[in-house]
User: Fold these one by one.
Assistant:
Number 1:
Amino acid sequence: MSYPSLIDFITPTGDTITLKGGLKFIGKVTKIAPRSFTIKNCDTTGFSVIKFSKKNIIKITTHYVPFFKHGDITPIPLVDTTKCFHIGIIPYLFLTRSSGIYLRYDLKKFALEYRPSYTYATNLEPQTMLPLLKYDNFYFQGINNSFIFYFPMIRKTQIGLVLSYKHWWHGKESIINDNSEISSKEEVVFFKEIRSTVMNGFGAGIEFTNYLTVYKNFDLNFFWGASFTYFNSYSNVYSMSYSNRFSGSYIPSTYPYNETKSRLCFNLTFGFKVGFKKPLKK
């Protein structure tokens, strides 16, 4: 199967770029980047290929179908440059079992969003043979505070740098202790303990967001991302609920006791944001 090339979307001649000051170039638009245009066969200058910064262009007429309507005499922005204040809800963050709200303010070269959210406990029991389901994460509920710095990519797609702080906890639960061993044997034994835990973590990641075309004051966009969170957890361990016994003796444990652990968690997430936006005065 073959796919159409860029040239298939461009007519042989007739694309025109007009710069500030009135200088005009005629040829074929062959590349559009977030901040620049490339045009071929510029017959007003003799250059075969020339690249223009978007900020220096005041008008463009092009047949470049993926980004422009035929015959337009003004450019369609590759990045949504309308500055707005945004507020709305995030009904559900898939894979991270959370819901939240968002407040966003568009600045000159980037946008800043504050996103508080709440993580639900699903009480899915840890699976000792699966590394991603090894810990007791699914017993936790908690509060997340995230700041996202969005930067333009192309059209209405943006990339964001995510910085977050998370405070999670769970009450008394029967949790597998995955750091225990049987004395004088190589096998790792997994036994359960009744414990309650609080943990705090700092995280970082990236997020991509795409704004959908909807009513002018209505906010709707789809986003997806990945992040890491480094947690410090503090547990009160009350007693052992049951144990796996092999030959040999258990590591001595005195109940109750306190335990401190560190863990690195990897998260993938995606969801929708729905809300309102108010254009800001220029």
Number 2:
Amino acid sequence: MQKLKTLGKYAPAITFLAFEFFALMAFNYSGSFVLFGSLTLALTVLLILFNIAEIKTKGLSNVALFFIPLFLFVLLTAFGTYSIAHAKVGDFSYAELVFIPLGILPMAFTGYMLSVDKHFNIKTFLIVVFSALSVYCLINLFYNIINFGAFYPVIYKGYYLYYGGVRSAVPVNEFAYTLEGFKFIEVDMNHYDLYPLLLLTSSVMLMYLSPRKEKKMFITYCAFTFVALLSLVLVPSTLALGGIAFIAILLLVIFFGKKFVRARKVFKWILVIFLILFALGFVGFIMVHQNFMSGLASNAFINRLFFSNRFAKMYSPLVDNLFSGEKFLGFAVETLGPGLYEEVHLSGSFLFDSFMTSGVLGALGLFAFVFFGFKAFKGYFKSHRDEFRLQATLLVFLVVYVVYISAFDAGEYALYYNIYKPIYLTAPFMLMIFIFSYVLCKSKAQVEEQKAEEVEVNEEQA
């Protein structure tokens, strides 16, 4: 142990290596979850070896409780019916299933390690991630403009391409090219929009950067925002324009919430009311699709609200009879012969897809981890361990990503390739796990310090 502690002098090099790894992940380099998982595992081992003196056993035990829901999620996902069925037919590799727990859990632990690493700077992390996203977005943007020209979703709306005399599966305005691995492929427009929308969250920093005092930093974040807007405006879509408006609203909320205490209270109650109504609607939707409440479908209003509309039809197959034995632990019903299965496609919402991929318990584990992660921001903002503008940028980044995967995710985004990518097999999801873990640990450390200070004050008074 003493010899391992001497390795601490090389810890800055490992921290620099971590930044390189985050750059590869933000760039979606190779698009391989096996690569991301193996690099995460290797990075975690190196962080432990070179920062053994920084690991606080007590602190780790305090935050371990927050990782239990994540452990439940990855375990039930990796060994669930959905994953095994897809692995049998080659949609997933067994290596990917192995790295679901061996990649995602180490990423959460990396969040803890870097939260106590004195060489890690969240400001540098954000610059690295946004720089990689900028390069990725520019490459995709240029390739689309070269092939179709600017504003092609508007100019060629309703037009189709023909390959060997066969018409394309969707019109030109509904797909774009993105770099997948080491080649460009046709993907759903929603998938293209994800990366510039995440990059656009960098605009939070512009509200708190001084053009005079922090000229280089201001120019850097102006460049990030400019690239994001170019990618969204020159390849316009409903999601792109809606995403820009949503991020603008978030910026206003942060600005007024920071400046005015009363506005903060108003925003808090609006958020609480919205979450309560959403939770009631979500739980209600699930419950009415169970066998013991099937009679409610005969009611015209309930039928229209929960059964017959377009969104209900999309999500219903994922929650029908969810508490039955076949579906409780995830499902891919094997009815078509050896190794084949009757597939229920990903809906684009992790809120519903998680029940299929991870079962009821696994889905609840993921929901709990996300809930605890957002809740931890309250303590994180109070800690003042990082600058407010950095904290706000992390929050907006996560809000945009979680909203995206709640309604607009395209897990089967390739048009002419067999690609199955539930959120847990993607690079942005890994970044989300890291940020939540980092924030959880920073928040928990603040709570422990406050308790220690209270004990000291009480002892002095005694």
Number 3:
Amino acid sequence: MKKNNEIQIEECPWMDKKFTQLSRTADKLLGLAGRMLYISKSMKKPTTIFNANIFNSKAKKIWFGDIEIERDKEALLKISKRLGPIYVLWEMDGRFLEHIPTIGYVKSRALVTVENGCILYSKEFAERVEILIKKIRGDKE
């Protein structure tokens, strides 16, 4: 049964219906699923995640596309406020799944967790962002 914040995915045959439940809230706040932010990957910002996959607390994919965590901060917080905790995964961890993910899998692969009004980076993602910021500033290690 379709809820108010879901989009019918029958018109998208390449999506796995077992774990994809696109959210109208996410589409409204982030843009249509599948969005591209930059014409070149060299234009990325330190917190850019290309082909990110956002999952909810039921391990359902609610959105996918390019995301810039700092730029999209308010949208992510609003989505989480409305839908509960959300988790942002790399493309490889969220797109090409051969199994229905569990919430344990989603949490363990999350680069970014958004819940209770906070955006939390995983250790891996925080280190990556720090390295990219230093490169941009021209810092020597």
